[in-house]
Write a structure and sequence with these properties.
Helices cover 65% and strands 0% of the residues. The chain is mostly helical and 322 residues long.
Length: 322
C-alpha cells in the first residue's frame, strides 16, 4: 500500500448494499420469531440458516474483493488502519450490546469480527496468484471437517473454528472456514485486475433509483449495520407488547440459554416448548412475552423448566401390548 487515496468503485458499494438489504430481511424475520409474531424458529430453521450463511459469505467475499481493489488503487496504510479500527470498534460494540441482551449467547466472534480479522489475514495474498489463493481458500474451507478439539471450546479459542462444541452464540463466523470467502474475493479481484477489468468496473455508474439506494447504503455499510437492529426492535418490540403473539420468541430465547449449558439443542427446544405450554397453567403466562419476572416468578419458572427437562430426558414408558 502507498500513501495515495483509494477511489470508491460504485459496483462494489452496490453489491455491499444488496448484502445489507438481505441482512435486514433476515434480521427482520429473526426479530419476528424472537418476539413471538411467527411460530418459525428463524435461528434454527434450515432454510433461514442457509440464507444467513449466504449473506455472511457475500459480505466476506466483498471484503476480500474490495481489499484488493483498494490496495491496487494505492490506499494508504493510514486509511486501511482507520477502516480496520472502525470495524473492530463496531465489533466490540456488538459484543457488549448482545452480552447485555443475551448473556448466555452473546456475539464473541460474529461477522464484524471476521471481517476485521479477514482484512488482516488476507494481506499476504493481495498480490498472490489467484490459483494459489483459491487453493488456500479450499484448504481453509475443509479443514474444520478434519481438525477439531475440545481444547478450543472456550470463547478465547473457539474463534479459530477448531472447537468441538463452541459456546452458544447468536452469530458465529470463525476464521476456519469463514476466511475462505474472503480469499475467494481476493482471488476474484486479482483475476479481474490481471485481466484488465478495472476500467470497466470503475466506469460503471448506478443510474437507476434502486441501484443508487444500494450504492448509498454500501458507502455507509457500517452505520447501516449498527443502526438497523435498534430501529427494527424499536418498532417491533412495542407492537409485541400490544398485540397477541405466539410463544415462539420465548421458546427461541429459552433454547439458546438452555443450549449454552451444554444440553443438546433438540432436547432444549422440546423442554422449552413444554415450559411454554405449562407456564399459563401456573399463572406465569405473561412471562412468555415479558421479561420483568419477580424473583418468585423466576424461581417458579425455573422449577417448571427443570421438570420439563426431566420429562424430556425421561419420557413416559411405553405401555406393553396386551
Amino acid at each position: 500500500m502507498s500513501e495515495g487515496a483509494s477511489p470508491r468503485i460504485a459496483i462494489v458499494d452496490v453489491a455491499r448494499g444488496g448484502a445489507l438489504v438481505a441482512m435486514i430481511v433476515y434480521h427482520f424475520a429473526w426479530d419476528l420469531s424472537f418476539l413471538g409474531f411467527v411460530r418459525t424458529d428463524v435461528g434454527s430453521d434450515p432454510a433461514w440458516r442457509a440464507f444467513a450463511m449466504s449473506i455472511a459469505g457475500s459480505f466476506l467475499f466483498i471484503t476480500g474483493f474490495g481489499l484488493v481493489l483498494a490496495h491496487d488503487a494505492g490506499q494508504s496504510w493510514t486509511g486501511w488502519l482507520r477502516r480496520i479500527g472502525k470495524i473492530g470498534l463496531a465489533a466490540a460494540l456488538v459484543t457488549v450490546a448482545t452480552y447485555a441482551a443475551f448473556p448466555d449467547g452473546f456475539v464473541y466472534f460474529g461477522i464484524l469480527h471476521m471481517i476485521a480479522a479477514g482484512a488482516v489475514l488476507a494481506l499476504p495474498f493481495l498480490r498472490a496468484p489467484p490459483a494459489l489463493t483459491a487453493g488456500v481458500a479450499a484448504i481453509v474451507l475443509v479443514t474444520p471437517h478434519f481438525v477439531s478439539s475440545s481444547a478450543f471450546d472456550s470463547r478465547w479459542l473457539a474463534w479459530t473454528g477448531f472447537a468441538q462444541t463452541p459456546p452458544a452464540t447468536v452469530d458465529f463466523e470463525p476464521v476456519f472456514p469463514w476466511f475462505a470467502p474472503v480469499l475467494l474475493g481476493v482471488a476474484a479481484a486479482r483475476l479481474a485486475l490481471d485481466g484488465g477489468w478495472r476500467p470497466r468496473l470503475a466506469s460503471w455508474r448506478s443510474e437507476a433509483a434502486p441501484a443508487r439506494l444500494l450504492d448509498a447504503m454500501g458507502r455507509r455499510s457500517l452505520l447501516v449495520y449498527l443502526a438497523h437492529q435498534p430501529i427494527l426492535l424499536a418498532v417491533l418490540y412495542p407492537l409485541s407488547l400490544a398485540l397477541p403473539v405466539s410463544t415462539a420468541g420465548f421458546v427461541a430465547a429459552c433454547t439458546v440459554n438452555c443450549a449454552a449449558s451444554g444440553t443438546d439443542r433438540a432436547l432444549c427446544e422440546s423442554a422449552c416448548i413444554c415450559v411454554a405450554e405449562r407456564a399459563p397453567d401456573e399463572g406465569l403466562g405473561r412471562l412468555l412475552v415479558e421479561s420483568d419476572a419477580t424473583p418468585d416468578e423466576q424461581s417458579r419458572l425455573a422449577e417448571i423448566g427443570n421438570q420439563c427437562l426431566r420429562d424430556v430426558l425421561t419420557p413416559d414408558p411405553v405401555a406393553p401390548n396386551e
